[in-house]
């Protein structure tokens, strides 16, 4: 009676077996019934399984049965049928260890040229430590953000206390010149405190300028406008968002120019409106602060020497790579801070920002 013989493996299958045996990555070669044809030694070491004894067993029976998961079974079956491929399926493996291991499974159907032969190559990556490190990093970032907001609140409160002390001192001094300097110092500290307060209450990351400027101007109006029936501040802005550090510079520009308008635009009747507007188009943007007050001095009137506020605005504009333009609004004054980015085409025909 003749003894049946087993057909020798094809060249492609022999090459696959050799590659799996020498792989440093945990690999399994499965047939269409999800039976293990070969397992790399690295797979055995990683999961405490004898690679030789794993052959001929279902992948779902490996270890103590911890691999027998409905979702994994379904995905492997679909891959074997050619209906899907597992690109990166994350799963928790609960073995003898009290803590689950986080694994990333990849599986694909191999082509041997014989449609009756089904082979799956399954790759297993242990990302437990990587995911733990990500969680620790996220926790540290979250803790840092909380601490930063707490510091910002404390700084804002401290600045407001300093501003109150300066205002109280201005009321008590006899010299008008000293009182003026103390009031200017009070306004300057308040402008920084207001920006700091708004930044502290905003989310870390991108800042929506419309709501940011609105809250900023409401704070300025509450502290500096005595009669809200006579004076008002109106904010109009698009839906632009900017990084937190950029919002601080823009906020300081707004506070300096709004304070300047409140001090100088309405000396006679004290009635008028200040408008704050921000518009962006791509990388270009314009911040405008205008009023309907007395306007710019005529040629016959002496022009005031640029003060500290003007220097601060110009310095902040340079920091933002923007330019400042002051124009007569008839009535009133309009100050525009604009960032204009022009695209130049190089010799290769590629557009580059300049």
Overall description:
With 354 residues, the chain is α+β, with helices and mostly antiparallel strands. It folds into three domains: 11-126, PAS domain (Beta-Lactamase, 2-Layer Sandwich); 128-201; 207-354, Histidine kinase-like ATPase, C-terminal domain (Heat Shock Protein 90). The protein has nine helices and 14 strands.
Total DSSP helices:
9
CATH topology of the largest domain: Heat Shock Protein 90
Give the strand order, joined by hyphens, for the main sheet. 2-1-5-4-3
Write the H/E string, N to C: HEEHHHEEEHHEHEEHEEHEEEE
Number of strands: 14
Strand content: 15-25%
Kindly name the structural category.
Answer: alpha+beta
User: In CATH, what is the homologous superfamily of the largest domain?
Assistant: Histidine kinase-like ATPase, C-terminal domain
Separation of termini?
A: 88 Å
Helix-residue proportion:
40-55%
**What is the 3D form?**
elongated
CATH architecture of the largest domain: 2-Layer Sandwich
Q: What's the CATH C level of the largest domain?
A: Alpha Beta
Roughly how many Å is the radius of gyration?
Answer: 35 Å
| Unreliable residue runs | 3-7, 350-354
Largest sheet composition = 5 strands, antiparallel
The tally of structural domains comes to 3
Mean pLDDT across the residues is: 83
Could you list some keywords that capture this structure?
five-stranded mixed beta sheet, Beta-Lactamase, alpha+beta, Heat Shock Protein 90, disordered N terminus, 3 domains, 9 helices, 354 residues, 24% strand, disordered C terminus, five-stranded antiparallel beta sheet
